[in-house]
């Protein structure tokens, strides 16, 4: 279920704000009935008309992108920078990124036009694991790693417990490579967690999203998720287990 104004916006009829105006002005019908409430939610089975024109529902699509560094995780950018949508010129559906990766972070990023699916993949309550590999400055002590595992107190709240594994460390260069698995998505969370233990991130890559990795892809390349993978992700969000 998605909010009506969001469905209208995704259909390309109007911006979300304009869609809200159309609803309050009584210009939107759901299943033949005029709707003026902004909070109403609709499903894929509902018939929606805007100013007498029925919304044609897009086929749902799901993609896995190996996001390169130097690309914005957004549908547009007012500064003219390259966005992830520029990597999908052949896709006709109005897709958008599921969550985001920072401009200078690479790795697994999902894109879709399915808002309900996107919410299942990103809301903390569904606890979908994401694994990052970070090259950091410094050699964290065991007690620092324990802090990450227990949860770090950040300015916007304490992080949930994380899984941490030191992949390598170089005493001469004073650098470490560490894998960190979390299920949240606070702004710049991974970088802030490492900063909190005195080990600033120098390079960051998201290696896995749930059970999905980057096998067979180069930076900038993508592939469609299979129907089975989409189903597995839905089951994982609902049950905590892969179906």
TrEMBL record:
Keyword set, alphabetical order: Isomerase, RNA-binding
SMART domains: S4
GO molecular function: RNA binding; rRNA pseudouridine synthase activity
A biological process from GO: enzyme-directed rRNA pseudouridine synthesis
Enzyme class: isomerase
Pfam family of the protein (one): S4
EC numbers, comma separated: 5.4.99.-
Any GO CC annotation of this UniProt entry: cytosol
PANTHER family from the UniProt entry: PSEUDOURIDINE SYNTHASE FAMILY PROTEIN-RELATED, RNA-BINDING S4 DOMAIN-CONTAINING PROTEIN
Entry's family note: Belongs to the pseudouridine synthase RsuA family.
The protein, known as: Pseudouridine synthase
Species the sequence originates in: Rummeliibacillus stabekisii
């Amino acid at each position: 279920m998605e909010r009506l104004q969001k469905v209208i916006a995704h259909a390309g009829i109007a911006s979300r704000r304009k869609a809200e105006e159309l609803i309050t002005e009584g210009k939107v019908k759901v299943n033949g009935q005029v709707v003026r409430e902004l909070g109403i939610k609709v499903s894929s089975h509902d018939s929606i008309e805007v100013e007498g024109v029925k919304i044609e529902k897009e086929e749902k699509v799901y993609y896995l992108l190996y996001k390169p560094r130097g690309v914005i995780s957004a549908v547009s950018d007012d500064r003219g920078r390259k966005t992830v949508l520029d990597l999908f010129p052949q896709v006709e559906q109005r897709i958008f990124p599921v969550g985001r990766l920072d401009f200078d972070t690479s790795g697994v990023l999902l894109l879709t036009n399915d808002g309900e699916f996107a919410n299942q993949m990103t809301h903390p309550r569904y606890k979908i694991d994401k694994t990052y590999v970070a090259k950091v400055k410094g050699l964290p002590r065991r007690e620092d790693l324990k802090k990450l595992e227990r949860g770090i107190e950040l300015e916007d709240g304490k992080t949930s417990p994380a899984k941490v594994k030191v992949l390598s460390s170089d005493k001469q260069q004073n650098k470490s490579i560490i894998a960190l698995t979390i299920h949240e998505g606070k702004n710049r969370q991974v970088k802030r967690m490492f900063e909190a233990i005195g080990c600033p991130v120098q390079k960051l890559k998201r290696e896995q999203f749930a059970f999905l990795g980057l096998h067979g892809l180069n930076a900038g390349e993508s592939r469609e998720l299979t129907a089975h993978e989409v189903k597995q992700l839905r089951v994982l969000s609902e049950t905590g287990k892969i179906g």
